[in-house]
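Hello again, I could really use a second opinion on something today. I've been staring at a protein lately and its backbone has me curious. Can you walk me through what the C-alpha cells say about the fold? Take your time with it, there's no hurry, and the full record follows here:
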Amino acid sequence: DDFIASIAASLPATAVRILELGVGTGRLVRALRSLRPHAEDTIVGVDTSEAMLSIAREADLGDTVLLNADFSQSLPDGPFDAIFVGYNTLFNLPSSNAIQNCLQLVAERLAPGAVFHIDVVNPTPAEENDHMRIRTMTTGEVVLSISRHDVESQRIIGQFVQFIDGQQTRLRPYSVRYVNPEQLDELARLAGLQLVSRHADGNGTPITADSHRHVSRYTRAQ
C-alpha cells in the first residue's frame, strides 16, 4: 500500500500514461486507480501469465490495457510518465542479464523526467538463513511463510503453506533471484538509468543496514 501511495503522490493531477510490469491479477492497478479517481490515466499492464491476466480482465480495472508479454524481452511503445514494478516482481527474472534487458527497455520508454519505481527485497546476511513465520491466522485458516536464503547464489526459495479447516493443505512455492542495491544501480547505469532516491519503504523511511526492503526510483540518465 505504501508503495502505490507513493507513486500516486508523485504524479500530477492531470491524466498520465502508466505502465506496470508484472500486473498479475491487477491488484496494484486497482489500488492506484482508487487513489486517482478523477484522473483519466491510461494504464497498461504486462504479464507472462495468461491465467492471471484472465482474472484481471474480469476485475474492475477501468479501461486498463492488459498484454501478455515477458517484460525482459518486450514492452509496449512509450513514452510513459511512470513505470512501476511491485514487490519482488523484478526479481522473478532469472538472471542479471534479464534484469538489465528489462531496465534497458524501461529506459527507452520513459518520458523525459519520468520515473521508474521499484519495490524489492533487501536481504541481509544472517547466522540463520532458514525462516518460518505466521503470515495469516484466523479461526479457520493459517498461512505459514517458510523460506531459505542462499547468500552465495543470491537466491531465496520458499513456500506459502495454507491450512484451511476441512480442506487439503495448499503449497504456493516461489523463487527469487535477487541483486543487492549496488548491483542494481550498476545494471541500471549500464541500461541508461540513474538513481533518484532510495528508501526503506514507500513512506520515505531512511534506509539502514537493517532494512529488509528498498523502494528505489530511477530516471533516464542525462
